[in-house]
Structure formats: C-alpha cells, structure tokens
Design a protein that fits this description.
This protein is of the alpha/beta class. The protein folds into two domains: 2-96, no CATH class; 99-275, Rossmann fold, CATH 3.40.50. It is built from ten helices and eleven strands. Strand 6 (117-121), helix 4 and strand 7 form a beta-alpha-beta unit. It starts with a strand and ends with a helix.
C-alpha cells in the first residue's frame, strides 16, 4: 500500500499517521510518500520524503485513490469520516508509540539533565491571514520561566523557518529567543547544534524523555500529545477548539493528560500546578 500525504503538520499527525500505522499493524506492506522531515513520524515504515513544501489543509491518497483532497474543508477530518464510515479516531486509527521508540533510540539524552524536562513549544506566525492568535506572549513566557526553572530543565521550542518544511505561513520575528537566553533557558536550536542532529530528530529525542509539556494550538501540540505525561495546551481559536479535540482524540494519541486553556491567566494558573 502506498500512502501519499501532504498537508499541514498537525493534520498529518492526527489524521494520517495513526491511519498508516493501523494498516501496518494489520500486516500490510506500507510505503509512505510525505514531506521532507516527516520520516520520523513513521518508525519502522519505508518512507520517501518527496515534498519540499507542505500543502495547506490536507491531501491523502492510498494506492492512487484520493481519500481527502487538499481543497476539501479541513474541518472534515474532525467531523466527517476520512476512510470508512466512522469518525477519524473511531476506526482504522492506531497512533504509534513514538515515546517508547525514541526513548529507546536516544536513551542517552536523559543523562544530560539533572532535573526533569519541561518542553515549551510555542509559535508566532500569521494565522488565518491575520495576526498571531494562538501563541504564548512574552509576559506569560517570562512568568512561566520564573515559575518553572528551579524545578525543571526548560527547553524552549519554537522553530525558525529554516527548521521546518512550511506550508507557506509567514513566520514572524519576535523577542522570545532573546528572552529565553537572557533568563538562562535552553533553546532547542542550541541542543540541535550540540547533538549534531537536525531539528526534527532533536525534537523526538527530547520529547521522548519529557513528561511535562506546554504547547499551543497546531502541529506542536499534536506532536507533544504523542509523548505522554501532561500537556497544557494554549488554544484560543481553531478547529481543535471548535470540535473539542482536546477532549476527544488528543488524549488517545498516547494516553496523555490534556489541560486546555484559553486565557493567559488560565495558563499561568495551570502551570503553577506543575510546580506545586
């Protein structure tokens, strides 16, 4: 079976990856054609990285038959079947255990830190052709860093446009990296250089050893949801919010405990529960 997958990172993570893994678990010989950098989402599967740019929304083909078209409204994966007659997460949907796989592969990572890891995955980009909406602002970041840095080794994770295969969404310049460095917080890009690995591999290595996550709406929260523990997701707007995805299928990605917050006050209050 050949799966051709191109779309936004989050939709590949929760619509395509569990579907491919389900077919593999049924004993099928599976091949995936996807975007550059996505090979790590499909452990023990033959993957060809053939797309240098992600489509917006989602395009999915199985053996040359189109199951989901790029121009279809992306909300369909939340409210309509993708393959079969049931909702996406109710049939032919089995998320792979990325945490166990990469924790074994990168078992040396945990030896590098003397405190539990806290990975904060943020974004700052144009959303719906307007200003950023689902991002942790600088004031909140500063408070979170101050609250958590004594108990956790904090990794701040926001990719630059060079780190990822983008869908054309403009990434904006911001002061978060400077803030993190000024407060002694480790940037994931620094560890990427130290370990001599690419950005996506560094993410997998670190997330596999992390049980406390803070993330935002979109692909970074979907990836974090594969790695167990607890995940505070700041999400104000989006189909995940509209269709209550943080209550339905996000916890099923790894059994993770999801805390969805929609204001910065709620975010800080929930972060304090990590510390206490």
């Amino acid at each position: 079976m050949v799966f051709r997958i191109n779309g936004e990172y989050g939709y590949e993570l929760f619509a395509a990856v569990p579907l491919v893994n389900w077919y593999k678990e049924q004993g099928n010989d599976v091949v995936v054609e996807t975007c550059v950098g996505a090979k790590l989402l499909y452990p023990n599967i033959k993957v060809n990285e053939v797309y240098n740019r992600r489509f917006q929304f989602l395009h999915l083909e199985i053996d040359n038959e189109v199951y989901y078209k790029q121009h279809d409204h992306v909300a369909g994966v939340f409210s309509k079947p993708v393959v079969g007659d049931k909702l996406m997460w109710e049939d032919k949907w089995s998320p792979p255990d990325l945490k166990s796989h990469y924790k074994t592969e990168f078992n040396w990572i945990g030896l590098n830190f003397d405190k539990p890891l806290l990975v904060i995955s943020n974004k700052y980009q144009e959303e719906w052709k307007g200003d950023p909406v689902n991002y942790i602002n600088l004031d909140s970041l500063k408070i979170i860093f101050e609250l958590c840095r004594d108990k956790f080794h904090i990794i701040y994770n926001r990719p630059s446009s060079e780190n990822i295969t983008n869908d054309g969404t403009p990434q904006k310049v911001w002061g978060d990296w400077n803030l993190a460095e000024d407060m002694g917080i480790t940037l994931i890009q620094s560890l990427q250089k130290e370990y001599g690995m690419d950005y996506n591999t560094t993410q997998m290595a670190l997330l596999s050893h992390c049980d406390h996550h803070i993330s935002t709406q979109g692909g970074n929260s979907a990836l974090a949801a594969y790695f167990g523990g607890e995940n505070i997701i700041y999400a104000v707007k989006g189909y995940e919010v509209k269709h209550k995805s943080y209550e339905t299928f996000f916890p099923k990605l790894s059994g993770q405990k999801i805390h969805h917050v929609q204001t910065y006050d709620e975010l800080i209050k929930k972060v304090k529960s990590y510390v206490n």
